Predict the structure of DNA-binding GntR family transcriptional regulator.
Amino acid sequence: MYAILWGMQTDVACSRLRELILDGSYPPGARLTETEAAATLEMSRTPVREALRMLAADGLVRPAGRGVVVVALEAGDLDEAYQVRAALEALTAELAAARQREGRIAPADLRALREVATLTATATAEGRLADAVRLNRRFHRTIAELAGNTMALRALERIWDQIQVSTLHSLVPPSRPAHVSDQHERLVAAITGGRPEEAAAIARDHVLDTRITARPDKEEHT
């Protein structure tokens, strides 16, 4: 019983610390000790210690003395992250469209995808950057969930985290919000229409377009 409770506390600590890192409360370069994290979360140090190890394994922090430091990807590593993301999102879009063609996706799930695409477009057009980032990730995660490939989803979660931490400090409104929204809509249409090859191509181009604009001093979240 104790082991189960300890594991649950560790998961909670990891989730809450991840959120604080992803929303910029702990920006790249910030140092965090077990004691400070435990005080912030109002938890004991044992689950916090394990949570920091898990975050280090995911590449969000690195050990530094008695604590950790939040890590941002260098420009070259960021390029590589986008290349892998493009390949994986092309795969998940292709799988989602194939499953739709086979009648394995519920209409309600497709409606949810369309709705989040609309919400993302609205937040982007209105300049609500924090909301746009959150909704954008929800949009891409929804596609990955529709793909039905747990391993791809887990890999994407890690890459999305690393990209978000590395670019959050340079958030600006996208230079071409209509283009971004159009790519999302075309991707939804390809998946809904059960066209795997088209969905994969759109998803890949969409991510690579983002990579071109996503530099340490320039970011367009899509």
About this structure: The beta strands are 31-33, 61-64, 67-70. The radius of gyration is 18 Å.
